[in-house]
Design a protein that fits this description.
The complex is a heterodimer of chains A (about 270) and B (about 400). Chain A is of the alpha/beta class and about 270 residues long. Chain A is about 50% helix and about 15% strand. Chain A has a single domain, classed as Alpha-Beta Barrel (TIM Barrel), CATH 3.20.20.70. Chain B is of the alpha/beta class. In chain B, the strands form 4 sheets. A 6-stranded mixed sheet of chain B has the order 3-4-14-9-10-13, sandwiched between helices. Chain B has a 4-stranded parallel sheet with strand order 7-6-5-8, sandwiched between helices. In chain B, helix 5 runs parallel beside helix 7. The chains are: A alpha/beta (about 270), B alpha/beta (about 400). At the A-B interface, helix 3, helix 5 and strand 6 of A face helix 1, helix 8 and strand 11 of B.
């Protein structure tokens, strides 16, 4: 298995390249570790791998997720209530990380509270993670965590927002590893009926400045919206829509079936 | 033009979503320019005098002094318009919002004092005002909710978590993330991402600047001790700041011990917390070993917060300030005692500072205690708790 010898950064690059060679954008579904419970989240991770995901964004539950809207906030609260920890989230990561790259979505308190950034990077790497997105660690605060992850071969994936000035966006792209995460809209995570008209320009400008792929997240709620994003970006991230599907399912099997059906449909739309 | 601090030792910073960074840069620049702008300073000074009623008195509390065996002055922020020090910050940030052309203002509130102050300033300046407030605080601070409505503000109830100040701040930050291009967030204390801790301190140091001049005029010497309650920490930073260089003046911050520090139900981030990130800055937070933020507890809504301003964490580490804590029961007793001794009904927040003083009397020199707000808002809650 050649991936075993690759670093996390390299595995992310391979995944995007594989999608590109098929003439489509990469599909990156988000899930909350431990939601609705640990068993279900293991089943959901496996369903993602079975149903066409190229990478997985795995949320580590945190009590005060400021970048998240009501759906993911509620999922984090429920996961913590069901006993989720960083350790149990890394178990979910480890259950699927030999099949496709897993990028952790962890708030900075989760990164710092467990013995510091280097220890977090060590544990993430041991669980097979390929990188991390830290949504409350903007450029200017991120150097130490970026270096700690890099030392373990992991990518710190930075975010670019519609409000980011062009000069700052170029500096973010210059230090990006893995991919650049473009936030589609001014706001928190959550389903939206329409994506902003200016998104294509933002993605084009970011791609012009970035040597790594550019993926878009926040607000992508339908296969059609994913396809719309896929025409301009290298990857599409679907979060709240899938978390809602998991919330509405009554069992681990039903959750896996619901998210799998949505992903298969989205994967077809992306290839369209 | 002097720099607006981002860090206080290792503490502070900007741990927020990228979407907010441009607005924080804009706010930093706006404040750096405004505080050096004579016209802005004159407008602020005029509103301090004619609208807030500054300077607030430094009152020699005779019967309280007798009770504790040393001279005590109260800095009467309870006499500021709207009944607490919160107006000092709200008025400065309201002017700043106007200067930046942001005509929609949001705020969070715990005890309701900051919400009322912000609603008042928005009425004064003709700004739209939305205040986030936990439903538990809405229950225990009903008169302030009614005042905000009267002043034309929209109060948005927050149901998440323990339905208190922490969740109200989170809800306000999420609103700001979504509306950052048109909206200014008037944060109520020396917390949050840079530049807020420095900005709010700069706007609250008027308490200490006045107190220093008044104390020197009254006693011809600096006080031996300054005493103030610490929740987020804005009244305490405000009175401490002009005295930090006076090494002979002890700075004493009193946190909420709630049902006791060992009970786990308290608001004492500095005494019993860990280093972590809450609401955009690195500081002392009440969190578990997993890094999850825990619910604070205090009888006083304004101290019921699991974080504290980053500059306080630095003052704690350097030893320049000393932090201590007082239980709900002691604060409730002090609430009644000051009312009967001086004819002044204090808010439950500074009742914590009074309670510490009652236990730590005698000795050389004299004290200045920041009476940060009046207690009218707390009457119903105190009556219910004490069965009076």
């Amino acid at each position: 298995m050649p991936e075993a010898t690759l670093t996390g950064v390299e595995r992310i690059a391979v995944a995007f390249e594989a999608a590109r060679s098929e003439g489509r954008a990469a599909l990156m579904p988000y899930m909350m570790a431990g939601f609705p419970d640990h068993e279900s989240s293991l089943a959901i991770a496996a369903a993602y791998a079975d149903s066409g995901a190229d990478l997985i964004e795995l949320g580590v539950p945190f009590s005060d997720p400021l970048a998240d809207g009501p759906t993911i906030h509620a999922a984090a609260t429920a996961a913590l209530g069901a006993g989720a920890t960083l350790g149990s989230a890394l178990e979910v990561c480890g259950s699927v990380s030999d099949r496709l790259p897993v990028v952790l979505m962890a708030y900075v308190n989760m990164v710092l509270a467990h013995g510091g950034a280097a220890e977090f990077a060590r544990r993430a790497a041991a669980a097979g993670a390929a990188g991390a997105i830290v949504p409350d660690l903007p450029l200017g605060e991120a150097e130490e965590v970026r270096a700690a992850l890099a030392a373990a071969g992991l990518a710190l994936v930075p975010l670019v927002a519609p409000t980011t000035p062009p000069e700052r966006r170029a500096r973010i792209c210059a230090v990006a590893r893995g991919f650049v995460y473009v936030v589609s809209t001014v706001g928190t995570t959550g389903e939206r009926a329409e994506l902003p008209a200016a998104l294509a320009d933002l993605v084009a400008a970011t791609k012009a400045e970035s040597e790594v792929p550019v993926a878009v997240g926040f607000g992508i709620s339908t296969p059609e919206q994913a396809a719309e994003v896929g025409r301009v970006a290298d990857g599409a991230i679907v979060g709240s829509r899938l978390v809602r599907a998991a919330a509405e399912a009554g069992s681990p099997e039903a959750a896996a079936e619901a998210v799998g059906a949505f992903l298969r449909e989205t994967r077809v739309a992306l290839a369209g | 033009m002097s720099a607006v601090e981002e860090r206080f030792g290792p503490y502070g910073g900007r741990y927020v979503p990228e979407t907010l960074i441009a607005a924080l840069d804009e706010l930093t620049d706006a404040w750096a320019q405004a505080r050096d702008d004579d016209a802005f300073g004159e407008r602020l000074a005029q509103l301090h005098r004619d609208f807030i009623g500054r300077p607030t008195p430094l009152y020699r509390a005779g019967r309280l002094s007798e009770r504790v065996g040393r001279t005590v002055y109260l800095k009467r922020e309870d006499l500021a318009h709207t009944g607490a020090h919160k107006i000092n910050n709200a008025i400065g940030q309201g002017l700043l919002a106007q200067r930046m052309g942001k005509l929609r203002v949001i705020a969070e509130t715990g005890a309701g004092q900051h919400g009322v102050a912000t609603a008042t300033v928005c009425a004064l300046l003709g700004l739209e005002c939305v205040v986030y407030m936990g439903t538990e605080d809405i229950r225990r601070q009903r008169p302030n909710v009614e005042r905000m409505g009267l002043l034309g503000a929209e109060v948005v109830p927050v149901e998440a978590g323990a339905r208190t100040l922490k969740e109200a701040v989170s809800a306000a930050i999420r609103d700001w993330v979504a509306n950052v291009e048109t909206t200014h967030y008037v944060i109520g204390s020396v917390v949050g991402p840079a530049p807020f801790p420095a900005l709010v301190r700069d706007l609250q140091r008027v308490i200490g600047d006045e107190a220093r001049e008044q104390a020197l005029a009254a006693e011809g010497a600096l006080p031996a001790r300054l005493i103030a309650c610490v929740g987020g920490g804005s009244n305490s930073i405000g009175i401490f700041t002009p005295f930090v260089a006076d090494e002979e003046v002890a700075l004493i911050g009193v946190e909420a011990a709630g049902e006791g520090l060992e009970s786990g139900r308290h608001g004492a981030s500095l005494l019993a917390g860990r280093t972590g990130v809450l609401h955009g800055s690195l500081s002392a937070v009440i969190a578990d070993e997993e890094g999850q933020i825990l619910e604070a507890h205090s009888v006083s809504a304004g101290l019921d917060y699991p974080g504290v301003g980053p500059e306080h964490a630095q003052l704690r580490d350097s030893g320049r300030a000393t932090y201590t804590a007082v239980t709900d029961a002691a604060a409730l007793a002090a609430f009644g005692e000051l009312s009967r001794l001086e004819g002044i009904v204090p808010a439950l927040e500074p009742s914590h500072a009074i309670a510490w003083l009652l236990e730590n009397g005698g000795g050389e020199g004299y004290d200045v205690l920041c009476l940060s707000g009046r207690g009218d808002k707390d009457l119903a809650e105190v009556m219910e708790l004490t069965g009076a």
